[in-house]
Amino acid sequence: MRLRSFFFSIFSFSHSPSSSSRFSSLSAAMSPALEKSRQGNGECNEVSKSKVTVVGSGNWGSVAAKLIASNALKLLSFHDEVRMWVFEEVLPNGEKLTDVINKTNENVKYLPGIKLGRNVVADPDLENAVKEANMLVFVTPHQFMDGICKKLDGKITGNVEAISLVKGMEVKKEGPCMISSLISKQLGINCCVLMGANIANEIAVEKFSEATVGYKGSREIAETWVQLFSTPYFMVTPVHDVEGVELCGTLKNVVAIAAGFVDGLEMGNNTKAAIMRIGLREMKALSKLLFPSVKDSTFFESCGVADVITTCLGGRNRRVAEAFAKSGGKRFYLCESN
């Protein structure tokens, strides 16, 4: 009966005059741990509060900062301030991007029109941004992660936890290296992952979405990340399969490129559906080849089939491949983010 109520609430959300309050009630039912944390019992010692830094400030990084900032103000176990490392850029008007973000509370270049939260502080100094944090959120293009980890090598001390929102992997001569493994090995810290059907601009305007937190070891830290990211419009589920979750977020882009070729060549919806189904099957086969511990059930989470569907319908990789096919294979640049 509760499941039936869940689906009814989702599909009636956009048609009901009281949809906002109804959706908030739905979220409370889905995230009892989060609601319990919000209520709290007394004051939390300032020293024991967790400090969060978001390493990255692009489109998805800014959205992640927005999600975290809203919860940091409500959860007693977190400091209000959320730091966000920004790769410094000078805007056309001569102002520095970090200065504009801190002045306007908006990432005018990568997420214009969206307020991040007054407790988000942009910092162009990577070491300074992370120095007091014990929870690090990595969300940059995957090709920059090796350099970032090398800069932070030896700078991370104490009981620090990390989570990677980076969709991609390092491909080396000795084989593929997952970004979570890169972080863990170079920085000596545990690293979970968050993946899912997450088009950043839709989450930024608070359209309902899901995500999956992949973890290994203790479930407790995974639940902490779930609390930190969960909102009435962003539902997060923990899964004990960090490699499976992360590989889904990486390999689905290959399927999306194939779907884009199908669109560009006007091969039809039947062919596109087949590409998505076969692609998901091959994602699972390759994941299990690389990591035999990967679970079949992971591919039915948001990080799996849902992300494949979203990326094959509206993702950047699909759009690039479609344009490439329509242009007869000519090179071009697509600057729109996601």
UniProtKB/TrEMBL annotation:
<keyword id="KW-0520">NAD</keyword>
<feature type="domain" description="Glycerol-3-phosphate dehydrogenase NAD-dependent N-terminal">
    <location>
        <begin position="51"/>
        <end position="216"/>
    </location>
</feature>
<dbReference type="GO" id="GO:0005975">
    <property type="term" value="P:carbohydrate metabolic process"/>
</dbReference>
<dbReference type="InterPro" id="IPR006109">
    <property type="entry name" value="G3P_DH_NAD-dep_C"/>
</dbReference>
<dbReference type="Pfam" id="PF01210">
    <property type="entry name" value="NAD_Gly3P_dh_N"/>
</dbReference>
<feature type="domain" description="Glycerol-3-phosphate dehydrogenase NAD-dependent C-terminal">
    <location>
        <begin position="241"/>
        <end position="327"/>
    </location>
</feature>
<dbReference type="InterPro" id="IPR017751">
    <property type="entry name" value="G3P_DH_NAD-dep_euk"/>
</dbReference>
<dbReference type="GO" id="GO:0046168">
    <property type="term" value="P:glycerol-3-phosphate catabolic process"/>
</dbReference>
<dbReference type="GO" id="GO:0005829">
    <property type="term" value="C:cytosol"/>
</dbReference>
<protein>
    <recommendedName>
        <fullName>glycerol-3-phosphate dehydrogenase (NAD(+))</fullName>
        <ecNumber>1.1.1.8</ecNumber>
    </recommendedName>
</protein>
<dbReference type="GO" id="GO:0042803">
    <property type="term" value="F:protein homodimerization activity"/>
</dbReference>
<keyword id="KW-0560">Oxidoreductase</keyword>
<dbReference type="InterPro" id="IPR006168">
    <property type="entry name" value="G3P_DH_NAD-dep"/>
</dbReference>
<dbReference type="Pfam" id="PF07479">
    <property type="entry name" value="NAD_Gly3P_dh_C"/>
</dbReference>
<comment type="similarity">
    <text>Belongs to the NAD-dependent glycerol-3-phosphate dehydrogenase family.</text>
</comment>
<dbReference type="GO" id="GO:0051287">
    <property type="term" value="F:NAD binding"/>
</dbReference>
<dbReference type="InterPro" id="IPR011128">
    <property type="entry name" value="G3P_DH_NAD-dep_N"/>
</dbReference>
<dbReference type="GO" id="GO:0141152">
    <property type="term" value="F:glycerol-3-phosphate dehydrogenase (NAD+) activity"/>
</dbReference>
